Amino acid sequence: MRTDLIRHAGQISFPGGRAEVNETPVETALRETREEVGIDPHSVNIAGSISPLYLDRSDNRINPFVGFMDEKPALIRNPNEVEEIIIVKMDQLLNDQLLKREIWELQDRKLEVPYWDIHKRAALGSHRNDDE
Fold first, then answer.
1. Is the domain of 94 the same as that of 67?
2. What is d(CA 79, CA 37) in angstroms, rounded to the nearest whole number?
């Protein structure tokens, strides 16, 4: 979960951020993961990417990646960016009872937003959508 010190404060998210000059999307993902939770980029085996998502309101393109590691990492939280590290087991993400949907109104549009109900911040109505 992001700290109150940065943009999108309080949101539950994976590590991420803007690319640096001449950096590929996967290099950005690995750098941000190191900066936010201390995972060595060389210890991650990238399996592939997930479909990118464009956010028109902020003019950002999200490029998510899936990676695997040979062993569980020792996570080191960057207190300037990360309020809390949330560990989620794969069976939680595969549990249909934890997959919920809400209707959000963003820019005068109603969108159905899926989420996993795995943390107190994920509960109905607790999202912050003033920036995105």
1. no
2. 9
